[in-house]
Structure formats: C-alpha cells, structure tokens
Please model this.
Amino acid sequence: MSKHRRSSAFGNDQLGEENRTESTVQPAGSGARKLRRAGLSGLLAALAGLGLSELISALLPGGVSPMLAVGAFIIDIVPPFLKDLAISLFGTQDKLVLLISIGAGIAVFAAVSGIAERFRPPLGSVFITVFGIAGVLAAITRANASWSAALPALAGGAFSVLVLRFLISALQKPSTQAPASATEGTERAGLIARRSFGQLAIGAAAIGVIGIAVGRAISQAATTAYRFVIPQAQNPEALPEGTDLNIDGLSPFVTPNGDFYRIDTALTVPQIDPQQWSLRIFGMVDQEVTVSFEELLTMPVLERSVTLTCVSNEVGGELAGNAIWTGVPIRDLLSKAGVSDDADMVLSMSQDGYTAGTPLDALTDPNRDAILAMAMNGEPLPPEHGYPVRMVAPGLYGYVSATKWVVSMEVTRFDQKQAYWTPRGYAEKAPIKLASRIEVPKSFASLTPGPVVVAGTAWAQHTGVDAVEVRFDKGPWQRATLGAVPSNDTWRQWRYEWDAQGAGTHYIEVRAIDASGTVQTQESAPPLPDGSSGWHNRAVKIEG
Ligand SMILES: Nc1nc2c(c(=O)[nH]1)N[C@H]1C(S)=C(S)[C@@H](COP(=O)(O)O)O[C@H]1N2
Ligand SMILES: [Mo]
Model:
C-alpha cells in the first residue's frame, strides 16, 4: 500500500483516484507516517522559503540574507566566554559549527511547524510567520541595512507559509465527501489535491536548493568580478637578508595569505563590490569625507610588513601572522577630514556592523604607519581578510585596530562611544603584549642526543624585540640568535642550538626582551580582558 502512495506522488490522476478511494477505506493511515510527512512538509516549506529569500537577497541591491542575518544576530548575543570557548574548541572552524547548529535548529523548528500545521492548524503557519518576522527584524537591524533588507525575509516567510499550506492540504486530500455533494470549495480542494504531495514536495525542494545555490553564486560573483591594479608604493619597504632562518617547522617570516589566521564575527564573508564601496569619515571633523575605491587607488600608498595578533591568542598560540600590506596611510585620510583636538578615538565600522575603537594618535602618528590596506602580500585582500579594504595599525591587537571590510570611520571620544568588544568585557585600549613562543622542536618530540635546533618567533610590535632567551630545566637563561627584521612592527624569528644531553624528559622555556629593555613577564594571564601573558614552555624527550 505504501508503494501505491509513493507512486501516487508522481501525479498520475488514475492513481490519485485510487488513492482517494483507498483513504476513504482507511482514513487514518499510520500515525508515524502522518507525523513524518507533516514534519517533512515543514522542512520543505522552510527550504523553499529560504531558497526564495536567498535568491531575492542576491538580486536586490541592499538585500540581506535572513538566514545569515539571524546567524549574525546570534553571534552578537553570544557571551565572550563562549566565543573564546568556541575558538579554543573548534579553532577557525567555529563558524562552520555555528552554521551547522543554526541549520539543525531551523530544521527542528520547521519540522515541528509542519506537524503543528497538520494537527493544529493554523499553528504551523503561525510558527513560520513568527520565524519570518524574526528574519525581518534580524535583517533590518543589521548595521548599514536599508528598508529593502526586509524584503527577502518577508517574501521568504510568506512563500514558506503558502508552501506549507499546499503541502499539508495535499496530505489531507478530501476523501470522505461523495462527488455529488461537491461545492465550489471542495472542487478547488480537489484541484490542489490533484497536485499530489510528491509533486509539490519535489517542487518545494527544487526551489529551495536552486534558490540557495544560485543566490550564493550571484552574490559571490559580484565581488570577484572586479579587477584592479595594486598601486605601487614610492618607497616600498625592503626585506633585509636573513629575516627567515629557514628552519623546518618554523613559521615563515611572511605568512602566506592562505595560511594567515582568520578571526572575526562574520558568519559568512561579507561580499563587497569595490565599485559600490566607499569609506566615510565623519564625526569630530572639519568636513566629512567620503572616498571611493577608485579615488583610493589614485592616492600615494605605503607598503609595510606588519604582524597582526589576536587578543584571543593563548601563550604559544597560533593567532598571529605577518604580511606585507599595501594601502593608503590612514593619517592622510584623517587629515583630509581635519580631526578635532578634543577627539581621542576613531570608531571604525565594517560593512556588517562590527566596530573597533582605535586611539586617534595611533592613526595620526607620522611614525606609526597605520594603513588602509587593499593588498596583502602583493594580492588584493582575500575576501576573508577584508576585501576590498581593511585597517592595519601596528602594535594594537586586531580587535581594536584591524577592521576588515571597513566602510566608515567616526572620529569621536572613548568616553562617548564603545566598540563591539568593549561591552563584552574586553579592554577598550589594547596594545599587543610582548610575547615569544617555541615552535621547534614539537611538543614531546623524541630527540637523539647531540645538537638540537630550538626555534620560534617573538613579537613586540611597534617597540621591537631586542633579545630572546631560552632555558632548559630551569637552568640559566641563554641568548638566542635573532633573525633580521625590516622594522619594529613585525615578529622576529629566533634560534638556539642546544646540546641535548641526558636521557629523559626536558623542559624548555622562552622569554623575550623588547627594545625598551622590558623583560617578558612570567605572570600568566588569560586572553580576557587585554591579552594573554606568561612564558611559553615545551617538554621534549631525549632518547637514552
Ligand atoms: N569586520 C571585522 N573586522 C575585524 C574583526 C571582526 O570581527 N570583524 N575581528 C578583528 C580581530 S579580533 C582580529 S584578531 C583581526 C584578524 O584579522 P585576520 O582575520 O585578517 O587575521 O581582525 C579584526 N578585524
Ligand atoms: Mo582578535
């Protein structure tokens, strides 16, 4: 019998008739199957609605994908300890995990809506409507959203309700009425019924899958279509000989773009068409300034190596990377606008609403090259690192200085404005702490007695690293050899040749001394509120 039902799914009228008679005989069917089909209806209705909304959001200028808006909203309300937990558990996969959880959440909600619509109509429609409204709210409350941001969720929600009703009514084909008593109403119901459940289901699934795929593809294509020539710096910074000590397993001095750590609150990478992009500088300025990407390309640029570090980096962690950035000095843009003497902060905002508060003097200082970068290691910024334009300010943790997908800078005061992470417990000012780490040999490496290269990186951005010291089994500190650096804004490689003797476990520690003579503190601190501290150590084994 179930076979019959399934074949009726393919819309043969003959079978439909048969089915109808059959259900007159046995109207109940199996309870579990009813539930399953109702749940499936909810899932398909949600899928179709999401598909339509994705498609509209891609085609509509200013359209916001409600699915992503809801995800972004969730990220914004997640408490900071959960964010650090997610980073430590899933690393850079934290967003994938979140996306999957959201997907699973939507699926459960949709299935429940389907069941509710089948057995307690119109409760399922109400659920989906509420969900659609949540999508609308999430979309229109995103930063930089216009009213058109509401449309995809509105249309998707309405369509989803419609699909749900069709699917559920196809499940409840009129079967008890004799043809003789047919009124206009039941005739229409009959028409719907003839579009069998299966046909409708396939249609809904197709709209959903195609809508999502095409929608994503369209919004991605808009970003990557634009080509530009990276402007040449007048005095590009030359890398001296010997920045790289060429040690196996040691981070290269310049981190390739593909290996560069990525940290941000963006659930999916914002897609920005450079031709639509502009940067607005406003607030405590003599005159508001708006620069387009084209204009930016005509301005004099700097090319500088700067090592970025995330405040969430644990002692010995990998959330740091060094790249060569090309872009316009931010001080040039700020002087175009003319900043007020009373201002002390620049609140930069990304296209997706993330904000960072940077001390104004760090951006206007002629001796600190804060850059509005459009290139990273000689290539346009990769989308996940801020395409088309991001900030880079040497010496400050990324969350207070390195806004990606930046679209505005408000010149203001720390006592007037708060940046994204400030109400979430992170310090409003956050210079990068002096740090060093051991990268070679690996933890618990098994070594043969004799000379062993111990190596790693150390950083004290904008101050510079003057020395790195290592010690073994709490013995005396030994000076390591340092790699060359182009400036004090980058990390520095170090190496020490150790005469490894004595079978068993040995304990290596490292600390750095910066150019102002400060010795890296042993005091251990967690990332919250202003960055981790403490000496990195590693245990290794010498074979007997
Ligand atoms: N738009 C935006 N920019 C952002 C962030 C963000 O969440 N959104 N995170 C900041 C943080 S915390 C860091 S550490 C750096 C990381 O830059 P990267 O991903 O290019 O390594 O970006 C900064 N810029
Ligand atoms: Mo960060």
Observations:
- The chain has 13 helices and 19 strands.
